[in-house]
Amino acid sequence: MLLFRRAWGGLSIMDVGFVQNSPIFGRVKANLDHVTDLLGATDADLLVLPELFATGYQFASRREVERLAELVPDGPTTKRLLAVAHQRRCVIVAGLAERKGRALYNSAIVVGPKGLIGLYRKTHLFYEETLWFTPGNTGFRTWNTAGATVGVMVCFDWFFPESMRCMALSGADLICHPANLVLPHAPNAMITRCLENRVFAITADRVGAEERAGKERLTYIGTSQIVSPQGEVLARAATEGEEVRVVTIDPKEARRKTVNRYNHLFSDRRVEWYETLTLPTAGPAQPRPNARPGKARAVRRTAG
Amino acid sequence: MLLFRRAWGGLSIMDVGFVQNSPIFGRVKANLDHVTDLLGATDADLLVLPELFATGYQFASRREVERLAELVPDGPTTKRLLAVAHQRRCVIVAGLAERKGRALYNSAIVVGPKGLIGLYRKTHLFYEETLWFTPGNTGFRTWNTAGATVGVMVCFDWFFPESMRCMALSGADLICHPANLVLPHAPNAMITRCLENRVFAITADRVGAEERAGKERLTYIGTSQIVSPQGEVLARAATEGEEVRVVTIDPKEARRKTVNRYNHLFSDRRVEWYETLTLPTAGPAQPRPNARPGKARAVRRTAG
User: Which of A229, A279, B6, B279 has the largest count of CB atoms under 10 Å?
Assistant: First the structure.
């Protein structure tokens, strides 16, 4: 609600937050209901939910992903979030399994009171995701909404500094980062990411564990957090337990890229020395022990 | 000494370290003598010394830099380090003010028992450095020495993820990082840098403070450190006090870029979505309050 009041008042401050949930695998409707309950009386301009927050993460097979993947915006998850965004007059960023033609994407949507704002398809797939999802074909996008320029990346994208750099260079003030973290590094690394780009970031992670279809147990680290462009942790959730947190930020803080009177984070970049960054990367010297059938299939599917 | 014994034995482990010193401004010979004393009986294959370790950092004027800058390899600092490297049979990476024609660079040299191995000129100048130094024109180089591929960056270069990324993509196992840190962020950020690139890094920082020519007091944060490709801090110095530390590493650890059986840090990069990274960066929307006369001069000098 503040979103519009503040925009009307010419102020740029926003209340932004995350929802840290613990979905039950495959029970989409129950998970959507539960997240709606979790929100309770939360009043925010923008909320970030985890990656695959309504399906769960550890798929047993591609067939299972096919069964749970949804159309955007006509699937139940997008429709429910559109209703919540409309009712609460807020922007919601959330991860879901998307079906588009024969392709499956690990996607995130941006929805607002007036409808679907944006769609991002995960660029850097992690682990077994490479077996069922097609690598994203959207690239790193930004959207102007509620007085901020918002970019979205999903979970493992954080590991590649290129992800947030591209969005920051495109003008993002705030990076929304739905995640299902199983490695311990992201919360501290996201401080570096915010510093190096002078942006806000909201990582919405899940908690709980999954151990399905005889696979290894995945324990999610929670630790959802909101970081400022100065690398301050404005809010950090616990490693266990569901939690909703909201903080007030001024997205304009992310537009001052001056480090001091002599240095500017972006105009000091010396792109003439960065050529290596966009050269095709040589693969591993040796073939990897496990090929990536999913990725190979996905590439064929995209090409077809 | 181990450098050669190990290379002969076909082993790849190395003893690598840093020297954290506290130079007296402008007293080059005394500072060189003192660093030599600090080394004492230290036995290492590769040692990193801080940025501008023999001159001090806070120059009062460009004239003062001109007076203290040296030719490479014919100046007193390079000559002394060549002698030390020869005597100790080790590789030394160290920062110095370099004079080349009419240009002055904030440089780092790589010297070994047999002579000068490499030269790097700081790409991203910090604060008043922009008034006296010319932005580096070497780009990010790597050298094969003592069984490792070594890259060099200087201090503020760390803030730009492009610096270490370029060196890692060029095959660097170990990043040598002479620094004079005044901001608090680098030690933790270097953990992210090592993780995202799966490389070792040695940051050699200075301690003490300078307050010269009526300028603001600069307090250096020490905290020199060595980080592994897994983001482990293998050694970290205190914020005060001179210190020499050496740890044993296996540079081959930096060559395994596989995160798990499905992910490889480099071949998973999707350069088709990174185009923004090498586009000329738009400058600040508004002219900065303080132009950078030194940089402008430097550009003219380079062009002339």
Answer: A229
